[in-house]
Fold these 2 entries.
Entry 1:
Amino acid sequence: MLPGMAGSDPAPVTLVLGDEELLAERAVSGVVAAARAADSGVEVHDLMGSKVTPGELTQLTSPSLFGDRSVVVIRSAQDLPKDVINEIVTYAKQPSDDTVLVLAHPGGVKGKALVDGVKKAGAAVITINKVTKAG
């Protein structure tokens, strides 16, 4: 069980921070699995940061007519365009009840506005530390 992942619904916005790919992937999968456990019919949108366009998040997170829940995973969040970062930070301040947003960011300077912005907005943060030596 990952820290911050109780047996309840996942946080509305989760930032997975760190460049240890396997562990980051596990953390992302954990959030998706928790969302699926809460609602088996949840729809998962898996996006690459460099390909997310302005307005896309708003479209994916707007309430569905059918009350469907969804998970939006954005990988390589450091590659998000600046206007999309602004959109995500704004969204993170008032996330939708029907959507779980997961942002995977390797850390570092690129895309720091996103990291700082969603942290300030109250996103759950799962920090992945690079494994330096075999345990």
Entry 2:
Amino acid sequence: MSLSTEFERVSLPLEYPFTIARGTSESVENVVVRIADDEGNEGVGAAAPSSHYGETAATVEAVLPDLLSVVEEVGEPHRLDRIERRLRETVERNPAARCAVSIALHDLVCKRLDVPLSRYWGLDPEDAIPTTYTIGIDDAERMREKTETAIERGHSKLKVKVGTDRDEEIVSTVRAAAPDATIRVDANEAWSPREAVRKIDALAEYDLEFVEQPVPAGNPEGMRFVRERSALPIAADESCITLSDIPRIADKADIANLKLMKCGGLREAKRMIHAARAHGLAVMLGCMVESNAAIAAAAHLAPLLDYADLDGSLLLADDPYEGVPTTGSRIELGELDRAGTGARPK
């Protein structure tokens, strides 16, 4: 068997400017990867790089030729373990680039077998949990409008970005606009440990589910300090990147937040899920702002999760790819009527 590969950079404008504690984005760049066999099957994946983790679209494009040469040399897409091991040996960092290749390979393998990815893994699509929809930082009136629009679109679970000097105003505004929604907040490392404890005490009055990454990842003892005193459960995101981080956060957080673009691929994500369970952690799968060419694959892991934050494609003004069907917050894996991840051009 022979495999052919290609990739292209795509610029994706967002529906709204998206602000978190670290800054604002109006568009994102993904790099789409395609891997085809000699029988006419094609797998699609994408990288959604984050400069916070040292990656850009340019660095992804720089390493993809080496990564895709590994795929072509192995030549057998079903040898996923061998290929992903060699990808790590070839490019140690650049997890989003490796992830794009991993997703495209899994999509190709499942199309060759004519099964959806969740069935390939033996998962029950009916166990897929709902996703949140993220409300970025903005002025109070715009946050109220965005919240009301999200609720009108059927999103019953919201994630609210905080990490400002007006966090209580932000949360109170969203709660007033969505009195019945499940709400969690994400500080993106913006608080000091003592500030986090104070703010969480105040924000807990708004009936929140949990708090994500309250303090910088470089302050693990600060995370422990917050968790021991927090009125709400604590999720680790920037502190939880790869498999080796799971035991390090086990006594400092209640929830491990995985992302495919942080860990480098689907097989590594599954290993992290099982490791987190073994360490007594609940499991969340998040995402970057990304096309369905990437996020469709993440949706197939939803039956294994406690929490999902897979709204990256929903934040786009227009996604060139379709993915797993969704109804508001619901990930409708059981409604997927095609093999692979479900990603396909519109």
